[in-house]
Amino acid sequence: MDTQPEYSQDQAAAMLGSDPSLLIVDDDGPFLRRLARAMEMRGFSVETAESVAEGIAKSKARPPKYAVCDLRLGDGNGLDVIQAIRENREDTKVIVLTGYGNIATAVTAVKLGALDYLAKPADADDIFHALTQRPGEKADVPENPMSADRVRWEHIQRVYEMCERNVSETARRLNMHRRTLQRILAKRAPK
């Protein structure tokens, strides 16, 4: 992870505004500490949480202006933390980080108010840009579009989420054998 900020302290402060509070929720301790240090160097006032319960408690005690939340945490889903943040402060800019990205969860995160959805390991500058992007700014077009295998996997994941993670119902809707679907779901996403 890049720890040297791309902007000077004055530039970063101007981009962050008067409330630089940032809540980072991730159960990977070393990554959490590195990201917290990198974001402090960029002018944020950082609080950290390593679980859904801790993230919800901190978002209620002091709702942050900015938040970075891992999707899969040891005690649950990071989307619960986003929902709690939204209940306590509507103007929070939220970024979702995950090592298990799929379109269905990205759509859910955006519906809950997340600005962006970044794959781990995310660079500190990428996270800073995502948090400070102005309304109407568009992200750069990816250089490498998804492969056909990835598109298929994303479709299966979307249907699986729509069926509320019911394997039998998902297999029926996709017209595939249940065991085949279970094997596909057990694998990591293709590149």
Concise overview:
This protein is of the alpha/beta class and 191 residues long.
What does this structure look like?
With about 190 residues, the chain is of the alpha/beta class. The chain folds into 2 domains: about 10-130, 3-Layer(aba) Sandwich (Rossmann fold), CATH 3.40.50; about 150-185, Arc Repressor Mutant, subunit A. It is about 50% helix and about 15% strand. The protein is built from 9 helices and 7 strands, in the order H-E-H-E-H-E-E-E-H-E-H-E-H-H-H-H. The protein has helices at about 10-15, 30-40, 50-60, 80-90, 105-110, 125-130, 150-160, 165-175, 180-185, and strands at about 20-25, 45-50, 65-70, 70-75, 75, 95-100, 115-120. The strands form 2 sheets. Strands 2-1-3-6-7 form a 5-stranded parallel beta sheet, with helices on both faces. Strands 4-5 form a two-stranded antiparallel sheet. Strand 6, helix 5 and strand 7 form a beta-alpha-beta unit. Helix 3 packs parallel to helix 4 and helix 7 (about 150-160) crosses helix 8 (about 165-175). The longest helix has 15 residues, at about 150-160. The model has no long low-confidence stretch (mean pLDDT about 80). This is ActR/PrrA/RegA family redox response regulator transcription factor. It comes from Rhizobium deserti. GO terms for molecular function: DNA binding. Keywords: DNA-binding, Phosphoprotein, Transcription, Transcription regulation, Two-component regulatory system. InterPro entries: ActR_PrrA_rreg (IPR047772), Bact_response_regulator (IPR050595), CheY-like_superfamily (IPR011006), Sig_transdc_resp-reg_receiver (IPR001789).
